[in-house]
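Summarise what follows for lecture notes:
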Amino acid sequence: MPDAADRIQEEGRRPARPLGRAFSRLARAVARRPARVAGIAFAGMVAFGFLFNALVLQVGRHPAPLFAEPAPAKGPVAKTAGETTGAAGAARAPAPPAAVPLPPSDPIAGLIRQSSGSDPLREVLFVQRALTKLGYGPLKPDGVYGPGTRQALERWEKDRGLPPRGEITRKLVQDLAAASGLPAE
């Protein structure tokens, strides 16, 4: 019994090449509708660009994710490098402040605060000094808005009967200045 290749040679045809067929179909499509093929190719490149940007080029978390993570359970908060205490913490040089000292909860409000001319580093320093003076935690005034600062700020808001948001606003700075007696910077 002859196999398929022998039968094709007997009939005088060449064996089918799938890659050749695909290329010839593409060539015919380009010849018939070049604008449509160019549009599809452009849309594919744009989709690839979005995926490449999202998966490769972005190194950090998105400031406004579609699906928010659940809030962490309330409990002891681990100290960051800037909030260490004791002999080991005093021997080390303090770490430089982080590039983004604003609270991460509302990125749009952070952009507005940055563009309004206020210095977020100075606001965080003031809040840390005022909270320390009022007795809300052993905070190291370093200008970095860390978990210790947020926890102390939420406790202060809760004690004042406010909803504990932990966000630094102009009104909050004014209230802290009035309560602590420190001049708002």
About this structure: Residues 34-57 form the longest helix (24 residues). The mean pLDDT is 74. The CA atoms of residues 97 and 144 lie 6 Å apart.
